[in-house]
Known about the structure:
Layout: H1 2-25, E1 26-29, E2 33-38, E3 44-47, E4 51-54, E5 59-64, E6 66-71, E7 85-88, E8 94-104, H2 109-118, H3 123-141, H4 147-152, H5 155-168, E9 169-171, E10 173-190, E11 196-210, E12 220-223, E13 232-243, H6 245-371, H7 376-397, H8 416-428
Antiparallel strand pairs: 1-4, 2-3, 2-5, 6-8, 7-8, 8-13, 9-12, 10-11
Helix pairs in contact: 3-5, 6-7
Amino acid sequence: MNKSIAALVVAAVVLLGSLLFLNRMVGHNDYQNYQICQSPFGQVTVIDTPGFYVKGFSSVWTYPRAMEAEYTQKATRLSPNDDSIRATFNDGGTADISSYVRITLPTDAEQRLKLHQQFSASTANVASAVKNHLTNCIKASGPVMSASENQASRKAEFNQIIEEQLGQGLFKMRRTQIDLDDLATIEETKDEAGNKVTHEKKARVQATEIVLNKDGKPIIIQESPLKAYGIGIAQFSITEIEYDKTTLEQFSAKKRSYLAAEQAKAERQQEVQQRLMLEEKGRRQVAEVQAEENQKKERALIQANQAAEVAIVNKMQAVTAAQQRTEVAEQTRLETSKLNEIAAIKVTTADLDKKAAIAAAEARQKSIELGGFISEEKRTLAQIAADRDVRVAEALSKMAVPGVIVQGSGEKAEPLTNTLTNLWLMQSQGLIKRN
Length: 435
């Protein structure tokens, strides 16, 4: 029994010894870390590959390839105390800057050994060194702008300036004087006539500006101490800016002033809108009057054009009528001339008929005289008839006998009664026939 217990104890001691031996002889490294090994004889090596390796009773320190640090006013896991950094702006305002930094540790073996030596194998010391350099960067960047500018529109620029100095080094700065609109005051003075004149007086303050080289890049006057150890800045962010009470009061006053200015601006804009509306209304009314007058003008112009066109048409009609009357008169003249020619022919014909009638009467007379069988009474009647025919023929030979009667008007026109009488005589004598 006692021997069994003793054997178990010996076995446990041997197993424990073996485990301790293995732990001291064999090490293991994860992929996200690297290790510094120092042998019992003082030889120091860097283990950068993942997996097991023989460490041979060496002391081992494990470093992450990248680490995080926070420097905040409010307590967090990485910043349990108030680690914020105060910045002073060129208008005298201050603010507590809370930030987050992601730090990359060196990849070169020599720099890893140097970091291990200088920072006492403590990542907390690395985070502290980063904070010290970050403090210089923040304090150098504050005077570049005013607190109002930082609060209103230049936060991103402020973050960029700090991050560049944190990784590269401190920039060369020079002092300058600038005028701040935010701190302007209204002053009253009197002109030559003694009248009050108000004008805005801007506040002039001392500020700093970054000095650039010929390529437009900032000049580095102090290289970042982190570079010497191969420490890099993978990410920098300002997580919160807590302005001091006076600066916040200034912001509130500025906000009230801005709101009052905006309200006044809105009221002015409203007045402008009213004025523009009245002007536009007046323009519209003028346009309506002009349009109405233009319509009247156009109507008058159209009527005048129509009257002119009617006058032209009337004139053309009058000319046409005159031309027609002229043509009718000319036709009448031609017809009258033709009728006169016909009448002359008929007169000649009547004269010939008269001569024939006379010759016939003479012949009958001679026949009567020669025959002797006609009584004295018949001879006398025949003589009367012959004389009558002679006189009628003579009268008819002197009358105009037209083929077509055109009765005109005017001073030289033939009277209608004469024309009718002639027609009746010619019809009664058989010179013309009734249709």
